[in-house]
Amino acid sequence: MSRRPLTSESVPENPRRVLLLCPDARVREAAAGAGFETWSVESPGGGRRAGGRTVSVDLDDADALHSALVRTARAHGIGHILYLGEAEVLHRAAERALHAVAPERAEPLRRLGDPALMRRMLNQSRVSVVRAEPATTAQAVRALVEDFPLPVAVKTGPASRTAFIRSRDDLDRWLAEAPAGPHLVEELLTGPRVSVDTLTCEGMHEVTGMTARRHADALLLHPAALSEADRAGIRAAVRALLDLAGLQCGPAHTEVVVTENGPRIAAAKARLGAQPLRRLLRASTGRAPEEDVLSALAGSPRRRPAPGRPAALARLPLCRPEGDLAAALTGIGGMRHVDDVRVVAADADSPEHVQVIVHGATHQELDERLAAVRRRWAERFGAGAGAGGGPR
Q1: Distance between CA atoms of residues 125 and 81, nearest Å
Q2: N or C end of the chain: which has fewer CB within 10 A?
Q3: CA-to-CA separations, 107 to 21, 24, 84, 159, in angstroms, rounded
Q4: For residues 270 and 108, is the Cβ–Cβ distance under 8 A?
């Protein structure tokens, strides 16, 4: 791999150094455990911490944040810039800084994160072929949607916000508040959805998890209940995508839809999955994804993937006025087959609720145990409180 050019502000790169953006305690410990010298960039007030160096910056000032990341990396010969949180703006800040200090490492991240570029790579290589057309304006989207059979997916911008257009009324509503482009219009993929997590080291892509979304009464199920043919097809498609992108090191999270024509890649990012998925993977495999990422960056020998006992993450509706929430959470958390239970704040997609992770020896036992959790929850909060796995 080529090295970044030295400037008057930079020193030779030391691969045992890592720059962490807004790390939590778990990430700091994982970096130290992997043998890294750590620097961090975070908001003012964080203070210096033992074993590392902290640079304070206003995270809302994009230019100041970029300068702090680039300056720190160059001044200390830091080989890795890593953000393991979930804020999209901070992911983009870390990727932008990486482009400045190590463009050859950052380019695969850009290829995976740009929906139009990713789809073009796949279609030109005849891998996971999906009908898709780029559009620079909202009116161009209108023209394409009229040419596509409904429903379609419209992806917009570097954050890849996706709107689903199932009717002309949906299209009119989207046009009324259309975000700035560029856009990508794609056929809407239908079938079971699987989240695929991978860890790449020296260009070798290891699948570390296949997780089903919306399985029966659960939001997430790991490992996904798949046929061997589907599992092999998913693995081959994801590895082909990462090869096409040129990813050499680090995590990736890919969304795959198992259609009637086989697995099709819906989206991908060179990062870990969201926190609920990470918690589920820890419960199923006993391994923390953040620790695996830092071990891979440090060049530690790869551990083989743990088989993973079946585990599911489900949603319980929150009914605060009708009972003692703290006692209810303690009661659920005390069940021997429950790994994690917590209150989750409301967001744009769902109201405040409780997430619970349950494990079992088999998928059937897992379903039975999840049903037992729902019954206990309903006993405390009423019959309606035990139903439903979340919005569809």
Answers
A1: 31
A2: C
A3: 19, 27, 19, 16
A4: yes
